[in-house]
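Narrative of activities, Objective 1.

The group set out to show that a structural description can be obtained from nothing but a protein's sequence at a throughput compatible with the screening campaign. Below is one input-output pair from the validation batch, recorded exactly as produced.
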Amino acid sequence: MRLTGPLRAVAVVLLVGFTWLLANTLFGGESASSVLHFFSGKRNQAETKPHPRKYKCGLSAPCPPKHLAFRLVSGAANVIGPKICLEDKMLVSSVKNNVGRGLNIALVNGVTGELLETKTFDMWAGDVSDLLKFLRPLHEGTLVFVASFDDAATKLNEESRRLFEELGSTAVKDLAFRDSWVFVGAKGIENKSPFEQRMKNSKSSNKYEGWPESLEMDGCIPLRPPLES
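Output recorded for this entry:
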């Protein structure tokens, strides 16, 4: 039997009322607009707002073609080790168990982007001659990624500082005890490197007791064209 007009109207009102009571119970007394949003499929803007997209090594934007994405993080005090990321691959980190006090260095082929070698040099109790033997024979176009950990300067001598200057560093000449330092240079670079940061060890501004804050730097490095034979 079909409902007459008046009965149908009463049924609709009762249904709406029941729906409102049910929704009021489920949503803890939220406003009608919240209920309507629920049934219409709408959500709070904070819930639907997309997270910022991250690119290689956590960069906020992609690198252009024929560029290498990188991120360097210096060590924090003498507790948290440094990180060197290249093209979304972690080259140096505590997780890889290849970090050490002093200078943490990764050598990369500037034409292909291939990792050549990683090594650490203790600049507090080590021998600077090991660093000199490492830097002197670098081939033209080799990229040099450097991240400090604890003390990166005490054992640096005039020649080692000069070798880093030849790689494009401007801060190494003033690098001192427990300064934080991140740097990307290249063998044969004609100008000074745009990828370098230094945080001075200063009692008045140190973030940690006896150490400045950790530095973080990222960017895109253009690959070099193959060298003519």
